[in-house]
From TrEMBL:
Keywords assigned: NAD, Oxidoreductase
InterPro entries on file: Ald_DH/histidinol_DH, Ald_DH_C, Ald_DH_CS_CYS, Ald_DH_CS_GLU, Ald_DH_N, Aldehyde_DH_dom
Function: Possesses activity on acetaldehyde and glycolaldehyde in vitro.
PANTHER family to which the protein is assigned, alphabetical: ALDEHYDE DEHYDROGENASE-RELATED (PTHR11699)
Record-level GO cellular component terms: mitochondrial matrix
Active site, renumbered: E307
Catalyzed reactions: an aldehyde + NAD(+) + H2O = a carboxylate + NADH + 2 H(+)
Superkingdom of this protein's organism: Eukaryota
Subcellular location per the Swiss-Prot or TrEMBL entry: Mitochondrion matrix
Record's protein name: aldehyde dehydrogenase (NAD(+))
Coiled coil spans: none
Enzyme class: oxidoreductase
Length: 540
């Protein structure tokens, strides 16, 4: 069965006229069931007390060598509810000593433990059992994601956790299909290549998709026979440690998967620079990625996979059905509160349809339902924390000050929590801050273009190269653009299609390496050539 695709739920493809599913539809009702706050449609969630999450926090410690332990320092830090800014729980604050303990456990599990010595089929069965347990606990983990992150619960429960399950099942299937080659040589030699696990993998995941990023990294690493130390984002530490506990219930040996919560400059830096970590994978901002790469190079030259920032173009061509293009581009930028590295945040629209598109994009943004993410029908919850909230509002103000036309939004939503109005700018110029900086928020910037040469040049005039969207009937136009755009993924008449088998990664300063699919396996394997001399071989 094909993996669930975000675009099948959030957006309409070029040929589809179906209405979006109920949990992303607009909330409509009689008097007292909906109201306008400012110009924005909302539910009563915006003015009622926050809904009590249907889950409790069971695990708030570090998970090292199969055991829950406090930080060596005894320190904790609060993880906050972005709906209110109130404390959800206090979580163990890992530091250098804790990373050392975790790496030591992972090293022992790799060098002496059963995991890399199991048959690949046995490893596959454990990963598959974990996926079954994860599926069984979807509701609890989705609730933790929403509580900690602010994303709509129905998005987490119906899209992200099922997709996480699918990715682990995908890599469970790969575990016993990893093999080397027999290579012909010029002479009497038998040559074979071995694909060996790389060892201890250090992994640092972001806060915007905690469980999905957990699966993108842990899945291929374990399938290849490695052991893992993963550092969770300080904003969202709750779901990964819950999942890791389920992994041990599935039969994962102690020390194979270790989870450290903590901060980037301490726990993250310790992991990136650790001399006994053989491989590092990081997802986050480009600026932090540079630091991670430097720390890795200054320590033991460990290979590093980086999935970094983006400023992705979404190109609406002159033959577009404007209504469909508006809906798809809306999903491309506003999904997950705009907190997506590949968000289609630069909307390029052909001048022939520009004015119509702008007015309809404005209307769609105004209709977007904002409120408590635990409430049914909500499309947009709060931003993850006060830092992101303030950064987004600062960049929005810069857009106004630089002369862009604010068509919708532009301010906070409500008076409590980190909610921001869905915001649309038109008449955006390429030199404006809103056109250049990764906003990571619910802000759509709409640009006008005249022809393909122009939009190709402008789309590529950025330090980023993560993704792009193209909306057109014309196959020649689609082919021209898809080959000319310097990005790792091009979606044509769709967006945010994330199948387990589709590789994902960037060009330029959006990172290096690929995650998901067969390509990700090479991140966690060493290739060894074994050459044996032959005496009087019958054939060569």
């Amino acid at each position: 069965m094909a993996a669930k695709k975000i675009s099948t739920v959030l957006s309409r493809s070029f040929s589809s006229a179906a209405a979006p599913p109920c949990f992303f539809s607009r909330v409509r009702g009689g008097a007292g069931q909906s109201r306008l706050i400012g110009r924005y449609k909302s539910t009563l969630a915006a003015v009622e007390d926050p809904i009590t999450p249907p889950v409790s926090v069971k695990y708030n410690q570090l998970l090292i060598n199969g055991q829950f332990v406090d930080a060596a320092s005894g320190k904790t830090f609060p993880t906050l509810d972005p709906r209110t800014g109130e404390v959800i729980a206090h979580v163990a604050e890992g530091d250098v000593e804790d990373v050392n303990r975790a790496v030591s456990a992972a090293r022992k599990a790799f060098d002496e433990g059963p995991w890399p010595r199991m048959t690949a089929y046995e490893r596959s069965r454990i990963i598959w059992r974990f996926a079954d347990l994860l599926e069984k606990h979807t509701d609890e983990i989705a609730a933790l994601e929403t509580w900690d992150n602010g994303k709509p619960y129905e998005q987490a429960a119906k899209i992200e956790i099922p997709m996480t399950v699918r990715i682990f099942r995908y890599y469970a299937g790969w575990a016993d299909k990893i093999h080397g080659l027999t290579v012909p040589a010029d002479g009497p030699y038998h040559v074979q290549t071995l694909h060996e696990p790389i060892g201890v993998a250090g992994q640092i995941i972001p806060w915007n998709f905690p469980m999905l990023m957990f699966s993108w990294k842990v899945g291929p690493a374990l399938a290849c026979g490695n052991t893992v130390v993963i550092k969770t984002a300080e904003q969202t530490p709750l779901s990964a440690v819950y999942a890791a506990k389920l992994f041990h219930e599935a039969g994962l040996p102690d020390g194979v998967l270790n989870v450290v919560s903590g901060f980037g400059p301490t726990a993250g830096a310790a992991l990136a620079s650790h001399m006994d970590v053989d491989k590092l994978a990081f997802t986050g901002s480009t600026d932090t990625g540079k630091i991670v790469l430097e720390l890795a190079s200054k320590s033991n030259l460990k290979p590093v996979t980086l999935e970094l920032g983006g400023k992705s173009p979404f190109i609406v061509c002159e033959d577009a059905d404007v209504d469909q293009a508006v809906e798809l581009s809306h999903s491309a930028v506003f999904f997950n509160q705009g907190q997506c590295c590949c968000a289609g945040s630069r909307t390029f629209v052909h001048e022939r349809v520009y004015n119509e598109f702008v007015e309809k994009a404005k209307a769609r943004a105004i209709e977007r339902t904002v409120g408590d993410p635990f409430r049914e029908g909500i499309e947009q919850g709060p931003q993850v924390d006060s830092d992101q909230f303030e950064k987004i509002l600062r960049i929005i103000r810069s857009g106004v000050e630089s002369g862009a036309n604010l068509k919708a939004g532009g301010d906070r939503f409500g008076t409590t929590g980190y909610y921001i109005q869905p915001t649309v700018f038109s008449d955006v110029q390429d030199d404006m801050l809103i056109a250049k900086e990764e906003i990571f928020g619910p802000v759509q910037s709409i640009f006008k273009f005249k022809d393909l040469d122009e939009v190709i040049q402008r789309s590529n005039s950025t330090r980023y190269g993560l993704a792009a969207g193209i909306f057109t009937h014309n196959l020649d136009t689609a082919n021209t653009l898809s080959r000319a755009l310097k990005v790792g993924t091009v979606w044509i008449n769709c967006y945010d299609v994330f199948d387990a088998a589709i590789p994902f990664g960037g060009y330029k300063m959006s990172g290096n390496g690929r995650e998901k699919g067969i390509y990700s396996l090479s991140n966690y394997l060493q290739v060894k050539a074994v050459v044996t001399s032959l005496t009087n071989p019958a054939w060569l």
